[in-house]
Amino acid sequence: MRMIAGKQHKPKAAKLHGLLQELLKLGVSPNVGDFFPFLQWADFFGYKKKVVKLTREIDGLLQGLVDEHRRNKYGFEKEDTMISHLLRLQESEAQYYTDEIIKGIVQDMLLGGINTEFITLEWSMAHLLNNLNTLQKSKSELDFHIGHGRLLDETDLPRLHYVQNVISETLRLNPTVPLLIPHISSDRCNVLGYNIPKGTILLVNV
């Protein structure tokens, strides 16, 4: 949030985090209309209403951040935040940097930054607690290179080989996202006996 808006915005960040979590839950919950398109009009369990309500609230919060930067015009010209950079670009190339595009970029950044880190931290702690020998080796390395007088800093990472291996192994065992970026077949092909037509979108399960 500091990188995007220049300060923490703790109340807004907490509310936005909650809304994005709800949206993610809805994104993975089954919707009858997705499986049977002819039933979409029925909106079983109020799925569409919930999505529309959530997206409006998220949009309102993000628009508030953009407007706050815009009101502080001379401030954002000096600021080195993502929103301030995008608003400067909006002044010169308005058609490419509309408020909707800026809000979309901000939302993508927040979604990518919220879940991936929490999920990786949870899994790494779970694995360490289930492998006490690995936990002890990680702790020894941290004690040796960092000590107890200060917090770990990014500049310390090149010396923490074992801890880096723990992180890499956690990401291998528990990827932060279930699917890779969608691929598309450039030509007709056959994979393990399956005929794949040209232009097929392929979702790879990590």
TrEMBL record:
Major subcellular site: membrane
Similarity comment: family membership: Belongs to the cytochrome P450 family.
InterPro entries per record: Cyt_P450, Cyt_P450_E_grp-I, Cyt_P450_sf, Plant_Cytochrome_P450_Monoox
Keywords, in A-Z order: Heme, Iron, Membrane, Metal-binding, Monooxygenase, Oxidoreductase, Transmembrane, Transmembrane helix
Identification of the protein by name: Cytochrome P450
Compartments, record wording: Membrane
Recorded GO CC terms: membrane
Species of the source: Gossypium gossypioides
GO molecular-function terms, A-Z: heme binding; iron ion binding; monooxygenase activity; oxidoreductase activity, acting on paired donors, with incorporation or reduction of molecular oxygen
UniProt membrane topology term: Single-pass membrane protein
Pfam families: p450
TM segment ranges: none
